[in-house]
Design a protein that fits this description.
- There is one protein chain.
- The chain is an alpha/beta fold.
- Helix content is 35%, strand content 15%.
- It has two domains: 156 residues, Alpha/beta knot (3-Layer(aba) Sandwich); 66 residues, Orthogonal Bundle (Trp Operon Repressor, Chain A).
- Helix 4 crosses helix 6.
Length: 268
């Protein structure tokens, strides 16, 4: 897989691309990451990439020409039918949410292009006529698209076949099956009086798998119940969730009943 990144700040990616899984993915040849300096496609001898917004207002807007020329340079002489198959992704707060499912889908493409905006934003014509997709990593605003591009890079690259040592590992990640991942433990078996659950030391693989699934389900119910709406659950698991809900309502009932009293009433 090849991923091209277009950015005003190529140095932002230098250290992250030289360590851990992203480094090994590149060294193995399974992933090629090429960072392009947008300034090289800027206008005039000063390589201008931004300008004041039409209509007034503060801040600067990134011009369209450098982005179009950068992408055309990256695609080079590729046939038109191949160009159409390459996602050109603008990292933008208004984009669709980045999820594990989106990462899986992107990892199936042989090539991606990531466009990093900056300042007040990018000229709308980049969004309308160049980018084929827009992605947001959350409901917040960053100083530029670089942190978001790095998140997408990392999440997608680790899903490319052969990048991770254990080919089954991505299947057990949080969100891979619609649930949060189960707890993990390693040596020592007892640390400061806290023990690793006995079942994990039992060697009973079927029981361990069942325990992990139960823990994953419980953790999702406690922390991200919204994920359960789309999760593929068995009838037994749905019954278990209903039982937890009933137990929680029973625990909260006395508090809710006490809170129902008139706060203005007094015995004095």
């Amino acid at each position: 897989m090849r991923i091209d990144v277009v950015t005003l700040f190529p140095e932002y990616f230098e250290s992250p691309l030289r360590v851990s899984i992203l480094k090994r993915a590149q060294e193995s040849g399974r992933v090629q990451i090429v960072v392009h300096n947008l300034r090289a496609f800027g206008l005039g001898r000063h390589r201008v990439t931004d300008d004041a917004p039409y209509g007034g207002g503060g801040g600067m807007v990134m011009r369209p020409e450098p982005f179009f020329e950068a992408v055309e340079h990256i695609l080079g002489e590729l046939p038109e039918e191949e160009r159409r198959e390459i996602p050109i992704i603008l990292l933008d707060p208004a984009g669709r949410p980045f999820t594990q499912a989106v990462a899986w889908a992107l990892s199936r493409h042989p090539r991606l292009i990531l466009l990093c905006g900056h300042y007040e934003g990018v000229d709308e014509r980049v969004r309308e006529h160049l980018a084929t997709d827009e992605i947001s990593i959350g409901d917040f605003v960053l100083t530029g698209g670089e942190p978001a591009a790095l998140v997408v890079l990392d999440a997608v690259a680790r899903l490319v076949p052969g990048v991770l040592g254990d080919p089954e590992a991505p299947r057990h990640d949080s969100f891979a099956e619609g649930l949060l991942e189960h707890p993990h433990y390693t040596r020592p078996a007892v640390y400061r009086g806290w023990e690793v659950p006995e079942i994990l030391r039992s060697g009973h693989h079927q029981a361990i798998a069942r325990w992990r699934r139960w823990q994953s389900l419980r953790r999702t119910w406690e922390r991200r119940p919204d994920l359960l709406l789309a999760a593929d659950l068995t009838a037994e698991e749905r019954a278990l969730i209903a039982q937890w809900e009933a137990e929680r309502r029973a625990l909260l009932a006395p508090l809710l009943e006490g809170g129902a009293a008139d706060p203005g009433s007094s015995s004095s």
